[in-house]
Amino acid sequence: MTNESPEIELESRRISAWMVGPVAVVVGVLLLILATADPAPNALGSGAVLGEVAPLVQGPTADGGSFDLDDQRGRWVVVNFFASWCPPCRLEHPELTEFVARHEQSDAVLVSVAMTDRQEDILAFFDELGGNWPVLYDDTTTAVIDYAVTAPPTTFLVTPNGVVVEQFIGPVTADQLDASMARFESPAE
């Protein structure tokens, strides 16, 4: 039992109820903004694998072949985590197609790693949008965890000696990839 008079206690409850409404609205608006905000496009990441030897990326590809990152030593490798159901991945896809076209006869290769995707959806995605690079789809959870990827698209640049030097969170462009490769090229590579 409180020592306050019934009028004071009733007024105190009214004030408390009045304050809960605006606080709930503010919290709701903040949650809505966070839930609908686009990730920072073309943001450079600071992932745990930067500066480290690239984690294993290997397995069957959606077109029936196979891919092993270790077989690519001596070449730049772009490791792109994507999903056929991901709208930003659709926006990024023409840029990846452009990158592959630019480097068709050079020392760079692209591999995509599908996140929670089915082979038939990946094949339909590539049939619709084009592209002819390896796409890993089966049991990619280990690669997603090893690269600490939280959402597609996320892209990593791996040097010819196998070290991860760049991470892009959100859609990446062919020009960004080329600029990063140029920045990291050196006689020691």
Descriptive report:
By secondary structure, the chain is α/β, with parallel strands linked by helices. The protein has 2 domains: 1-37; 43-184, Glutaredoxin (3-Layer(aba) Sandwich). It contains 5 helices and 8 strands. The N and C termini lie far apart (78 Å). Mean pLDDT is 84; it is low at 26-43.
Salient structural properties:
two-stranded antiparallel sheet, 2 domains, elongated, 189 residues, Glutaredoxin, alpha/beta, 19% strand, 8 strands
Identify the strand order in the major beta sheet: 1-8-7-4-5-6
Topology, number of strands:
8
Distance between the termini: 78 Å
Secondary-structure element order, N to C: HEEEEHEHEHEEH
Mean pLDDT: 84
The helix content is 25-40%
Q: Which CATH C-level class of the largest domain is it? A: Alpha Beta
Number of helical segments with 4 or more residues: 5
What percent strand?
15-25%
CATH superfamily heading of the largest domain: Glutaredoxin
Write the CATH architecture name of the largest domain. 3-Layer(aba) Sandwich
**Major β-sheet profile:** 6 strands, mixed
